[in-house]
Amino acid sequence: MGTQVEVEGVVNNIADDAAAKQKAIDDWLPITSSRKAKWWYSAFHNVTAMVGAGVLSLPYAMAELGWGPGVAILILSWVITLYTLWQMVEMHEMVPGKRFDRYHELGQHAFGEKLGLYIVVPQQLTVEVGVNIVYMVTGGKSLKKAIDTICPNCQPMRTSWFILMFGIVHLFLSHLPNFNSITGVSLAAAVMSLSYSTIAWSSSLHKGVKPDVSYKLTGSTLGVKILNFFSALGDVAFAYAGHNVVLEIQATIPSTPEKPSKKPMWRGVVVAYIVVALCYFPVALIGYYVFGNSVDDNILITLEKPAWLIASANMFVVIHVIGSYQIYAMPVFDMIETVLVKKMNFTPSFCLRFFTRTTYVLMTMVVAMAIPFFGGLLGFFGGFVFAPTTYFLPCVMWLSIYKPKKYSLSWIANWFCIILGVTLMVVAPIGALRTIIISAKNYKFFVSTMALPFETTISSKNGTIATSFLTCNKGSIPPTLNMRLPRDLTLLSQQIFGYPRLHSPVASTSLQFLQPTVTRISCMNNRGNTLPHRLRVTFLHLRRRPNCGFILFNTLLDFVQWLESSKLPEKQLGYLDEATAKAKEEAMKEEIKQLFNENRFTLVGDEEEEILDKCLTFCINYKIKPSDIVSSWEAYYLNRQFVEPIVQNAEMDGFLLYLQNEQKESIIKEEPGLHIYSSKDLDMILNDEDGDEKEVIPGTPTRNSQDPYSESFDSTPQTNGRTFSVGKPSKLITPFGQRTHKFVVKFSINNVPSTVNEQKEHEHENSDDDLIRKVQPGKRCSLTVHGSKPEAGCRFMYDRIEDRFNALENRIKKHANAFSSSKLYQEPVDPTVSSQKSIFSVGMICCDGEGRLNEKSALLQSRLIGIPSSKLYIVAIDLCLLLLSLTWGFVYTSHSVEHSGGQRVRLELQNTNQYSIFPGQIVGIEGHNPSGHCLIASKVVDSIPLFNTADLNMNPTKKQALDKEIQSNDLSSKQEELSVIIASGPFTTTDNLLFEPLVELLAYAKRKLPQLLILLGPFVDSEHPEIEKGTTNMSYNEIFHFEILRRLQDYLEYMGSHSRVILIPSIRDANHDFVFPQPAFDIHPPDLKNQVASLTNPGLFEANQVKIGCCSVDILKHLSGEEISRNPAGGGPSDRMGRLVNHILGQRSFYPLYPPAEGIPLDFSLAPEALEISSIPDILILPSDMKYFAKVLTLGEGEEQVKSLCINPGRLSKGEGGGTFVELTYYGNPETTNASIIGI
Predict the structure, then answer these.
(1) pLDDT at residue 913, rounded to an integer
(2) Can you name the CATH fold of 801-865+900-941?
(3) Structure confidence at residue 98 (pLDDT)
(4) Which helix (H) or strand (E) holds 1110?
(5) Alpha helices (H) in 1148-1200, listed in sequence order
(6) Sign, Cα dihedral of 605, 607, 613, 616
(7) For labelling alongside 482, which of 725, 737, 913, 1192 has CA 20 to 30 A away?
(8) DSSP per residue over 778-795, as a string?
(9) In this predicted structure, what is the pLDDT of residue 257?
(10) How far apart are CA 268 and CA 47, in angstroms?
(11) Secondary structure of residue 891 in the 3-state scheme
């Protein structure tokens, strides 16, 4: 008896241990580890699992289904899938005391232990793993599209790299243990799905119905329409594929007999399906209603919206598929970990989970990179699994478990769903199979397109010219060909390759080799007159591709060897399948004609055949698709601003030049430092009779790459038959043109781009979005200029001592009034009056003697306060002599210190713990003067209070007139978004006058499309070596007009009427008045509709109600050399640049330094008010030789704070290299402005 009890105890202990072990495993597995979810968790998870990027293809599915069937199928699918989802929620707890936490557990209960696994697990794994791979591809492609849209100038990257980036995110997120831990990710994904769906349908609705919209079913025959119909059924089925994770999501919700989990789960499902309806139905119906059967398979492509919308929608898709991947991956993780722990007896641990999940993510990532067309295959194989798990497998389980009465409503509904689901499972793969067959020719493993360069060799002595470039698919054969060619390659191509109409330009000929190789070779024209006796082919390397192998290589090699040994005359050379080639040509011509008609371009009737022949030649020569040739023509048509949309033969030559420039530009970007030689260069090389004695300026490579609409940029402009040589002849390639780092972001605020790479442009530079932005560029920014003095043509060099005295006295007076009006300080008093009490005085900092200001030589120059009339003449003489001493440098000790009405006093700064002063600064001093000879300062106030100082220097009438002007331009008087590019001269390097930095800056601006381009001088730099030496044979005005204004005129003609340019002169401009303040340039460019505005130096203006101040004099450098300061002990390092800019704003003067720095032609007789800053600008531009910066400074305290964005853009060129410029977008507040300082 005792033995039996002991045995029972052992058995019970073993059972308890097994139960405890099982509980520990369940607590570790991701599905059952946490059961604390709320009903809204299930709503997030179901929306994330259900709504996918496929919603954007629903309008395309509607186009293949038609109105009646399409609407019926959408509604029916929504109802059926909601019903089957309700069944699964109900069956989760159908057995009392047991929860079917996983889909396969419910299948085992319905069909048996083994059969249930065989039925459910393969389908569930196929769906979940397949969807994860599709989402890996979708996430990578969407990320690439977003990055390419945001940064069109960045170097293009392979899609595989973006898939890798997307996968790295999941390497971290996949280690979140369970569903509840990814709730935040799921919520973000659900919000993003609703966001990009809303963008799709609302943008479609805003665009409006197309006038020629058609709702006919696509497809030329009835059979094609039926197959398209079947394929659309698969698209709809895929859209509702979310049932595979429903039970796993419900398993995370707590459940008791009193409060079962099905109630909160069903609540979340209902909310999720409402969101699904809000996403699916508007996108499908509105998209199809607006675009009809012309809608693309991605409605965002059809919308053709600006870059920001496309980038935003793609980023929303990326965030959504990040969450969806985790939702579908969690059941897979659970299956794998269950097998490892329960079947293979691994111990649950972090290392096991880390290894399994990392391996799974890497597997899906590698498959996604290797098979980027996996989504197309999934449409076929997924038809066997999406329909069962979503449409009819839950119904089969319901019938098997509940066994409803025959012919009852439940029985009929379930069998209806089963029949419909089986039908869908059969017909959907049929349509998908046709799609795969059609698209199979485009399927490539590890696909990527890249350019493989040649090494170019040119020799004019032996007549041998090497190939210049090769463009091919990565899988193609990339050889380097060195060949002796006949003079007329066109004739040879006719005999050998069966292309009778290849175009041969003046200096280059394109030869298309075998069509399957997708290879284009461009060769220079040889000067020989006979056929080559041999063709030497050197293959550098060979990459095998599954579609080619060595068959193509051996065929080409045999042909070359036969040609090399052939002694036959030219007419006896064979050619390759001329009939096939002509058939392809005719098909391509028909496609080109059709595309022209679809884009509403009319071919001139009697010229149609000739136009199509030339377009075909262009396609063959430059390896351009028919769709690309039509898109290029559209860009050419828009830029030439033709009136009627017709294609004329007379424009084909100009169109050819446009295509050639596109080719040159793309090669330059792919090949850094490569120079594409034009006909002028070739003539110079081949006809070099004088050897090295003649030098030509053909233009730098960057010039050729920057202007896509002119054949080349010669640095010798020609006008009226007169040729100007700007400076001495330059080398063929300049140091600036050979620089490697281009458009690198040096510094940015509120914006974190890394590089704006000019070296390689995005392959879709002339995309539809760019064309739309050029044709419909947006609102033109308003412009209001404050002040116009000094005026152009004013007389200067009449500066009198009296003018200087009055200007300085007025400054002190205005500052004193401002301090007094603020009520923050005492009434200013004479600082020379002895007093034991603390006083407040306002005056100007002066230096006692020669040399730099220091703490011991500081004096305070005060205004004339309370001076007896008998002493005024003494003070006047005293001040005049003081000004003479400051002007001509002799030492003068003021007598005003010795007289009762004296206005200068020594300033003692020992007792102040902080100050920053410079000569000419107006300050407020708190302190006392016990002796009358020395003002002992306790506090230095170095800026005007903000209170009541706006428009400090403007009389009321002028201020009112300005307010009316602003209101007339913009009734809202509200700041709007403003995009600006800012650059300061010099605009050319010191080794030449080619103005290469300016050319590249304007090309950059053409791509960025700013509303405003602000250029500050010097434009024709008087300190340029060639200007100083006088070696130019052009006048300074001619250089300014030909090199600056001509390029700006071309820029504005390209940009359109929305763009503006502001020019601000510099005292270093050799073609302008040497005086400061400086009048504006007297320029009136024709036909620019006031797009070019010239401002005074300094200048203050408003653009879109954004106040901008600028001064081209290097005040920062001058202040830096004269300022002295003391920082409080323990205060840490100070921001010196910020402090210098604060001086300018605090003094309300663009040039508060007095006496001015050496070489500054300061003239107070012209318009001293032009130096004053009437109000704090939103943006202050102060170019300087000191290091570039962009800072948001705060003036004032408390509620009266004012913020200003202060910018030093640096110099566009420095020595023989490039400098920096600024690109910013103002969003209504300096703190939210995006600004980047970019190295050119």
Answers:
(1) 85
(2) OB fold (Dihydrolipoamide Acetyltransferase, E2P) (2.40.50)
(3) 79
(4) strand 1106-1110
(5) none
(6) negative
(7) 737
(8) -PPPPEEEE--PSPTT--
(9) 78
(10) 9
(11) coil
Q: How far apart are CA 709 and CA 234, in angstroms?
A: 47
Q: By C-alpha distance, which of 369, 315, 296 is closest to 149?
A: 315
Q: Are 1188 and 1203 in contact (CB under 8 A)?
A: no
Position 320, amino acid: H
Domain 31-441 has CATH 1.20.1740.10: yes
Distance CA 1186, CA 1117 (A): 7
Residues 679 and 684: their CA atoms lie apart, in Å, by: 8
Q: What is the dihedral of CA 911, 916, 921, 924, to 10 degrees?
A: -40
Task: Check residue 1060 and give its pLDDT.
Answer: 92
- The mean of the pLDDT values for the chain is 73
Q: What's the chain's length in residues?
A: 1240
Contact between 1208 and 1188 under an 8 Å Cβ cutoff? The reply is yes
Q: Six-digit token pair at 131?
A: 């969807």
CA distance 382 to 473: 31
Domain-wise residue ranges, the chain: 1-25, 31-441, 585-659, 801-865+900-941, 976-1127+1134-1239
CA distance 453 to 438: 33
Determine the Cα angle at 261 with ends 260 and 265, to 5°. Answer: 140
Place of tokens 């045995």: 7
3-state secondary structure of 1224: strand
**In DSSP terms, which residues pair with 846 in a beta bridge?**
859
Determine whether 765 is exposed, middle or buried from the number of CB atoms within 10 Å of its CB (0-12, 13-18, 19+): middle
Residue numbers of the chain with a pLDDT score lower than 50 = 447-577, 673, 677-732, 752-768, 771, 866-873, 887-902, 948-973
94 CB contacts (<8 Å, ≥6 apart)?
100, 401, 402
Specify the DSSP class assigned to residue 1019.
S
Quick: pLDDT tens for 55-64: 777 888 888 8
Sign of CA pseudo-dihedral 948, 950, 951, 952? positive
Please, are residues 425 and 441 in contact by the beta-carbon 8 Å criterion? no
Could you tell me the two tokens for 881?
A: 């002599």
How far is the C-alpha of 889 from the C-alpha of 989, rounded, in Å? 36
Give the DSSP letter of residue 755: B
* Residue range 976-1127+1134-1239, CATH number: 3.60.21.60
CA 764 to chain centre: 13
Q: Which residue has the tokens 């880390």?
A: 354
Residue 375: predicted pLDDT = 55
